[in-house]
Design brief:
Number of helices: 12
Largest sheet: none
Helix content: over 70%
Strand content: under 5%
Distance between the termini: 101 Å
């Protein structure tokens, strides 16, 4: 009798393990694929919307209920890429749908893990696109700074958004935005710094460039050369460039 019970118990365990594997393996496989796609998006890879939609559909697990931060982050990253595609397509109704889906996705992520600097920035940007600028949205930008003040790949994106509304920023965020621009130059991201400065930062270039006196001379000179080459010469502390040769 004991042997029979032992065999029955072993059979039940084996069947349960097999059933669990059958149910979860497709989910784990799809999430692994989605994680790979998410990583590629971070590194600048572009995907067709049909590919992203297919991967999101294949995941089909209740990530929010299970509180699996990695899966929720990957879902939000794919939805962010879908919004970028919709922006490029220029179809307003599709963009509105994608923005709403992205906002919901980031909310689900925050209910499980509210520590992602990049996604607080995404949440700020998403609400900005849906509702337009409102001062109360700045709390999301502030959360992004608090959660990840020194992450270079985020800083170059955040700096553009912050400087685009620099005149509207309260003193603490204005200081953050200025320090972030200085940090981008100090870290040697000169092309990014030049693009930011000649884009949203241009109306505030005097204030921004005045803060570069704490940055190494080599980085200041590289920035000055980049600005001159693009036709945007401006005074940078301690930098005197040689005259251009026309021969």
């Amino acid at each position: 009798m004991e042997r029979l019970l032992a065999r029955a118990f072993t059979f039940i365990l084996g069947a349960a393990a097999l059933g669990w594997g059958t149910l979860t393996l497709p989910i784990f496989a799809s999430e692994t694929q989605m994680a790979s796609t998410s990583d590629h998006i971070i590194h600048g890879h572009l995907y067709a919307s049909s590919v992203l939609d297919h991967e999101l559909s294949a995941a089909r697990s209740s990530n929010a209920a299970l509180c699996r931060p990695s899966a929720l982050r990957d879902t939000a990253m794919l939805r962010f890429s879908l919004v970028e595609n919709a922006l490029a397509d220029g179809i307003r109704t599709r963009l509105d749908q994608r923005l709403a889906e992205l906002r919901q996705s980031t909310q689900e992520l925050f209910s499980c893990d509210p520590t992602g600097s990049f996604f607080w920035l995404v949440y700020y940007w998403t609400n900005l696109n849906i509702d337009g600028f409102r001062p109360d949205l700045l709390k999301f930008l502030r959360m992004s700074y608090q959660q990840g003040p020194n992450e270079g790949w985020i800083a170059t994106k955040r700096s553009r958004l912050a400087l685009a509304i620099f005149a509207e920023l309260p003193p603490d965020l204005a200081r953050r935005a200025t320090d972030e621009f200085v940090g981008i130059v100090r870290s040697g991201f000169i092309e990014d710094a030049a693009a930011i400065l000649t884009g949203p930062g241009w109306p505030f270039r005097v204030e921004l460039l005045a803060q570069l006196d704490t940055v190494g001379l080599a980085e200041r000179e590289r920035l000055a050369l980049s600005l001159r080459d693009s036709g945007h010469e401006s005074s940078i502390p301690g930098v005197v460039l040689p005259r251009k040769s026309f021969y």
